[in-house]
């Protein structure tokens, strides 16, 4: 296994937040930008043609609802085409394709299990606040199963964690502060979640989000707060936003089945934006959906910041490949016109370039 394969295997099993993951695996972090590769291909950045290529990329990346053409033609002068390094052009296309596949795998990973419903929780000392208004005897088993799965699939990766349930007059805390993750603490938390009832969630009256959030923000051992809510009426808004603004840690909001114009969703978004680095994950569907495999390419996580970031990289890689295929086509055309013959390993010209790319799986 070579270094690239080892790196890709590590990326596929990486459970860090997507922001942290992209700091290592974005196209820029991997050195796959035009600024780095155009000079290597023989196209100086100060040439007007380099700017033309950049403009073509920016234009197609920006039109996110339009499909990316298989090949994007760029008008390049013959003298410049003749200078293009064919071997490096092939290498760039091949590496771009592998990088795109890696980002697609990350996206599919975000669609799996509890990440699909709750987003990707921060792998840090995390306090999970459950604000549930729509828990009933009928869906109780589904709710309990979902949060127990969240515990073992994501909270178990955190070094420390706590679980707080918003009640009507009291806040149901699993522990007084975050607790070190261990087999013992996970079993204890699992038992705590198994005992969730509509009464404990304050469903018959009004769950007190302010009190629960205050407990989480006041805990010095908490690095991040995650609020999961299936509906809030916007009450105590001023107090909640003031608390979020003074809380020196990110408050991430997970909105379950909240209409786009609802007061509850607006409040959750404001909580996240008022805190330090908070994000919002929106999900519409049943909790059972996390157990159902999702077809690749499904735009199910359009409201997930993590998924949007990864999909942006997938599209950028697609556009870069299409533009470089356009350059490759121009190289091939000039080579055929001039009757150039490939000279072994140093050059790939004419139809041989196309055949080589097909053999390498670069479509």
Q: What helical percentage do the residues reach?
A: 40-55%
Using only C-alpha atoms, the radius of gyration works out to 25 Å
Task: List unreliable stretches of 5+ residues.
Answer: 295-302, 340-354
Strand tally, please? 7
Give the end-to-end Cα distance, rounded to a whole number of Å: 24 Å
Mean pLDDT across the residues is 81
| C-alpha geometry | elongated
Task: Provide the succession of SSEs.
Answer: HHHHHHHEHEEEHHEHEHEHH
Share of β-strand residues: 5-15%
What is the overall number of helices? 14
Largest sheet: 7 strands, mixed
Structural class: alpha/beta
Topology readout:
Blueprint: H1 3-12, H2 18-25, H3 34-41, H4 48-62, H5 78-83, H6 86-110, H7 113-118, E1 126-131, H8 140-153, E2 160-166, E3 171-173, E4 179-180, H9 183-194, H10 209-218, E5 224-229, H11 237-246, E6 251-256, H12 263-274, E7 280-283, H13 305-338, H14 350-359
Parallel strand pairs: 1-2, 1-5, 5-6, 6-7
Antiparallel strand pairs: 2-3, 2-4
Helix pairs in contact: 4-13, 6-13, 8-9, 10-11, 11-12, 13-14
Question: Could you explain how this protein is built, in words?
Answer:
By secondary structure, the chain is an alpha/beta fold. Helix content is 50%, strand content 9%. The protein has 14 helices and 7 strands. Strands 1, 2, 3, 4, 5, 6 and 7 form a 7-stranded mixed sheet that branches. Helix 6 packs antiparallel against helix 13 (305-338), helix 10 packs parallel to helix 11 and helix 11 (237-246) runs parallel beside helix 12. It is elongated, with a radius of gyration of 25 Å.
Characterize this entry briefly.
By secondary structure, the chain is α/β, with parallel strands linked by helices. It contains 14 helices and seven strands.
